[in-house]
Amino acid sequence: MSRIPLPYNPKVMDLFRNPKNLGKMEDATVIAVAGNPACGDMITFYLKINEQTQIIEKAQFESYGCAANIATSSIVTEMIKGLTLEATWDSITWQKVTEEIGGLPSVKFHCGVLAVGALKRAIRKYFDDRGSEPAWMPKENTFEEKQALEEEELAKTLSKRVKPEEEKSP
Q1: Which member of 25, 71, 92, 111 is catalytic?
Q2: Number of folded domains in the chain?
Q3: Is residue 164 part of a domain?
């Protein structure tokens, strides 16, 4: 069986080979994870937020996944630097992320959704950690947050069904 490579554009391949803001941030204000290693895509976002202005001063990520996962996470960190949390929440969508990297094959749209889900999870966690909820943040999870949760639940379900041979009953 042969595998045909996915038609990634040059920008996606460049961000995959030379990701921006890759690595752990030791002094992050907030850290959020989305995905599940069992399904293959995992993202951790680190945000350094100015507490007075709520501006994202620095953003970094760690990723375990494909070229699209790394490229979308990388571009998100570039898109949000210097934005307030509210502006980030309102303006960053998976569609804008996909557009910013010049498009993705349709089977990889979920990578943009997961990256934005992780970002919004980080913003929500920032306010949860402080016991506050801004009026502009919806009480319900966004589409991207819901999708990230669904991917995690699916991976958990599949990992329970697929057990190594030694764990199966005789």
Answers
A1: 111
A2: 1
A3: no
